[in-house]
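REQUEST FORM: STRUCTURE PREDICTION
Request ID: SP-0412
Submitted by: Lab K.M.
Chain count: 1
Length (residues): 292
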Amino acid sequence: MNICAITMVYKDYWALSQWYLHYGRLVGFDNLYVVAHGADPEIARLCPRATVITVPRETLEGFDRRRGQVLNSFADGLAVSFDWVIRTDADELICFDPAVYASLTEVLENVSGKAVFALGLNVAETLDDNVLAKGQMALGHRRTAVFSGHYSKAWATKRGTGLWRHGIWVGPRRIESTPFELPRGVYLMHLKYANIAALETANQHRTDVGNMPGRGLPGAAWKEADQTAARFYARLASYPSQSWEAARDHAYATINAAPVRDTKENVLRAKSTVFEQRVTLPDWVAATFCDA
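STATUS: Completed
RESULT:
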């Protein structure tokens, strides 16, 4: 099975380094594609074996829609040569429980449709964690996380399937019949909160973009990026701990039972359920994400 991975990035160097190493190990470094949102030679330096494509950064109006159109078009082109195209943000890493699947190929061989979702988690740095050294994989050193409906996203597609609003665009005639494929044992690890130092740098960029004049720019999560992060950490501190198994089973059942079939935008996606329990990631996660 031929599988590639694609992401789009602007100056989020720490997350990109995590993405490059993880997906390079998973699908092969020569099967990685990075879309640079504006010319930046640092991206090629950080991802020496990936194919780097630069797209203009002349305007940020219609930010999400423009990015989505570019990536959907590019991913559909790649799908002519690849059986599956993985597409995530640079701070989103897909992993699978080795007790359930022997390989990524086995995960995708069990998908009957043209797109697959994963159970999402926000991974966090806590006061007990050490600052990450250069080259360390966050998921080898971070153990605290919260399940997230918002990040239970579609992450891999076949040709003819576009991603939109964390889900897939399916068209009006298929909105009720398209299967919502959320396999057990497959997870999307969101690293936004897993490195506080990198988050502070990224938040400055988000704040600058979110507060620019223009239409269709990112919303409050970017305009007030520091406040958004502060609220996340405050909520995390207040959440009770729950076992991985209990929280996982509850999150899976909740999200799988009631996917959103948005007939206005013709998008199938997970419901953005908020889960209020902290979990400790199982040992297999750290073993999967060993350092460079």
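NOTES: The first helix runs from residue 13 to 27.
Reviewed by: T.R.
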